[in-house]
Amino acid sequence: MQLPNIYRGNYKLLALVPIVLVLISLFYIPQIKKGVDFKGGTLVTMQTKEGVDIEKLKEALEQKGYAISSAKSLKNPAGYKVEVEVERDEKLTQAEELKSAFFEKIERVAQLEADVGITNQSAEALEKYMQERKELDKKADALFEIAGLEKNASGYANANELKKAVSAAYRMILDSYSSKLAATLSQLVAYESAQFNEVSASLSAKFLEKAVNVVIYSTIFVSIVVFLIFRTAIPSAAVLIGALCDVLIAMGAMGFFGIPLTLASFAALLMLIGFSLDTDVLLTMRVIKRHEGTPRERAYEAMKTGTTMSAALMLSFLCLFALASITHINTYFEISAVALAGLVGDLIATWMLNAVIVIAYLEGGGSRGEEKKPLSALLFSDQG
């Protein structure tokens, strides 16, 4: 099927479509919910023979003091898979903070304890040790209290014994919470098997920190490479704008369809940056560096190639989406759904915004950049 040449006539009006779509996406992006990976909590997966009334289940769990992020029941060949995301319990969060603070100080206290022995309990070494040990005991006692144990941190002869006691108390808190949650769910759901995946607040914070770092560094490196390739500001900016719009549209779809931000969906967003840059660079290289025909004709030829590439990718992710619909594997669903939304956004952003910017730039007398001996002359000399 022959694609129509959308760049005939007043092609600049095409830019309105991606701009409006990005504005709509900006409205829905704040509605994206963080998954357990990024906010901590417990993901419970249960296999049942019969379906479960999700609203009643959520209401019953909330009445028992659990904060529920999401709950769903999905049919599968073995019956139904029920998934419940329970937000991090306040006591668990407090216990984890105390444990982390304790283990940050324990090595210091152990060293001071050793110094006391080496100096034959000199007044100065003993004073330093007692001061640090007192602070450590406060944290340990607070953790013991949450675990329902007696506050007796000062009764432990050395830091090593206290360290073992604190570790045991923290495990007791986790086991107690898991056992209580399992017992509650067993009263509400007749499940055949259950799996509990716990993500601590510190681990989720680390995931989020690493994710932000990946975005920052990848943006910096991509910007450097794009500017090295084209050596001209507007075409380089057009490539980056196209990639940004692609990600924004995908995130807007996540907010609209209720797809949470998890490690899987975040990975899909990173993939979209690569897919978007692929088509954006293809378009910009063809329009800027080639000489045959007009800029509009070159953009149209690039669009035919680019849409074929995107269609192939979309077909692949459609297959993954179909598999996710059958198997109800969340990871497959999140990756495929985000990728499909982003690829649709890429078609719109690349060929209705990026192309408009590049064509307008050339028709307005913009430089092709040949006199600057761009790096692209070496990297893409054989590109057809």
Plain-language structure description:
The protein is α+β, with helices and mostly antiparallel strands. 68% of the residues lie in helices and 9% in strands. The chain has a 4-stranded antiparallel β-sheet with strand order 2-3-1-4. A hairpin with a 2-residue loop joins strand 2 and strand 3. It is flat, with a radius of gyration of 29 Å. The C terminus is likely disordered.
Order of helices and strands: HHEHEEHHHEHHHHHH
Look at the structure and name the CATH superfamily of the largest domain: Multidrug efflux transporter AcrB transmembrane domain
Radius of gyration from the alpha-carbon trace, in angstroms: 29 Å
Output the number of helix runs: 12
Distance between the termini: 22 Å
CATH class of the largest domain: Mainly Alpha
CATH architectural arrangement of the largest domain:
Up-down Bundle
Q: Which oligomeric state applies? A: single chain
Global morphology = flat
Q: Please bin the fraction of helical residues.
A: 55-70%
As laid out across the biggest beta sheet, the strand order is 2-3-1-4
Low-pLDDT runs of 5+ residues are 370-384
| Biggest sheet details | 4 strands, antiparallel
Proportion in β-strands: 5-15%
Summed up, the domain count is 3
In CATH terms, what is the fold-level topology of the largest domain? Answer: Multidrug efflux transporter AcrB transmembrane fold
The whole-number mean of residue pLDDT values reads 85
Class from helix and strand fractions: alpha+beta
How many distinct beta strands? 4
Q: Brief description of this entry?
A:
The chain has twelve helices and four strands. The chain has helices at 16-28, 36-39, 54-63, 90-118, 123-146, 159-188, 201-230, 233-257, 263-289, 295-327, 330-363, 376-379; strands at 41-48, 68-76, 79-86, 191-199.
